[in-house]
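ok, trying the design again with the full structure, not the truncated one.
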């Protein structure tokens, strides 16, 4: 709570001049932290721990120890390119390429939601995360981590395509196409509103199909297919991008100036109660030619997702979500609302844990209002007061002015 109060006070007293100075400071410290994390590992492909050891102590949540979430690492690779650290960015992208061809159970191009963190040995199957359970006296794997969520596939593709744009090395393009082909074949659902489902949860060989459709996942896929189409135009890529875009369009509630979060598990019924910050603001920078009307979403976000000087994940949030606050700064900056972003730079700096990493939240724990999987008995997807790769990478992305969905740099 003290960290939050400090953040709020800084947001209140910061002058425009100091706010402007905070942005390059944030860029420097987060970019350096990401680069150091990669450089600390042996040469070759690497995947960074999403929750690294902090001052010698590993995360207290055992299922998070040594886990490299695919989404976080995709963000880190994109961020490092934006930071001007291409060698470190490529090392993460190379790990994603290796993962598409060396899964221990599948040979269809899908990526898992997470892998074991560290240097990737380029021999044999890529390692999946897990931990020894004292209760079961057995090796345990998390059902979500070994699954394949659709949005995570799309973010890996965005990172791979950014690596291709930067290097023109074909392995990145081929891996991106392979992952997108898997989503096309396995996650499309034609029942109205047509779009792409949440993905698959659980253990091979028969993970559970998650039939709900997420606005955020479809935003991600619309961006990924569009990015591929800009590099290698085809009717199929354009058609897939349009399917995802049409779903996103269908989730806009003009009378409320906000997006629905998606559908219920039947894939048809709209979910009206819950809201996710990312689903509200990402469409403004992820899809091609977003309608001007969508810019009204910030009024809803300021009313429903505000927490102190920043933003929380869910509607009426119970704490500050550092990653989401960085997302809001990025979207505001890229859409010409720099004044809205300015007070967020110092707020983000105040979330520094150590050595440039940012805490996921200054609270002990915050809720997203979402469940991790179909076997959850309650909404159990939380963020914790731990240094977090996703928060650090999004802050670097926002401060460097890169659009993570397109690779374009903010115009000066």
């Amino acid at each position: 709570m003290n960290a939050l109060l400090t953040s709020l006070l800084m947001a209140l007293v910061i002058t425009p001049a100091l706010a402007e100075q905070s942005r390059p400071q944030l860029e420097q410290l987060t970019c350096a932290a990401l680069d150091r994390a990669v450089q600390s590992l042996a040469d070759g492909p690497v995947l960074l721990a999403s929750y690294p050891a902090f001052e010698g102590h590993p995360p207290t949540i055992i299922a998070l120890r040594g886990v490299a979430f695919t989404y976080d690492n995709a963000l880190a690779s994109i961020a490092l390119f934006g930071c001007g650290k291409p060698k470190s960015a490529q090392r993460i992208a190379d790990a994603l390429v290796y993962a598409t061809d060396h899964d221990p159970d599948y040979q269809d191009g899908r990526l898992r939601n997470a892998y074991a963190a560290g240097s990737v040995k380029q021999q044999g199957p890529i390692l999946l995360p897990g931990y020894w359970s004292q209760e079961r006296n057995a090796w345990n794997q998390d059902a979500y981590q070994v699954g394949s969520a659709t949005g995570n596939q799309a973010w890996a593709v965005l990172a791979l395509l950014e690596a291709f744009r930067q290097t023109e090395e074909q392995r990145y393009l081929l891996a991106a196409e392979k992952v997108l082909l898997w989503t096309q074949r396995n996650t499309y659902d034609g029942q109205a509103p047509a779009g792409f489902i949440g993905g698959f949860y659980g253990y091979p060989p028969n993970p559970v199909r998650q039939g709900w459709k997420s606005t955020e996942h479809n935003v991600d896929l619309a961006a990924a297919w569009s990015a591929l189409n800009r590099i290698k135009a085809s009717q199929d890529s354009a058609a897939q991008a349009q399917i995802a875009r049409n779903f996103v369009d269908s989730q806009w509630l003009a009378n409320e100036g906000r997006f629905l979060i998606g559908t219920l598990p039947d894939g048809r019924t709209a979910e009206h109660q819950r809201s996710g910050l990312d689903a509200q603001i990402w469409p403004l920078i992820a899809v091609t030619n977003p309608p001007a009307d969508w810019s009204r979403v910030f009024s809803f976000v300021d009313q429903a997702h505000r927490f102190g000087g920043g933003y929380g994940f869910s509607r009426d949030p119970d704490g500050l979500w550092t990653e989401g606050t960085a997302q809001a700064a990025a979207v505001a900056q890229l859409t010409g609302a720099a004044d809205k972003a300015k007070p967020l730079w110092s707020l983000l700096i105040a979330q520094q844990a150590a050595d440039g990493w940012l805490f996921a939240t200054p609270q002990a724990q915050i809720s997203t209002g979402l469940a991790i999987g179909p076997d959850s008995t309650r909404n159990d997807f939380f963020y914790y007061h731990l240094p977090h790769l996703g928060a650090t990478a999004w802050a670097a992305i926002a401060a460097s002015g890169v659009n993570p969905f397109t690779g374009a740099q903010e115009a000066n």
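Keeping the full-length input from now on. Residues 1-14 have pLDDT under 50 and may be disordered.
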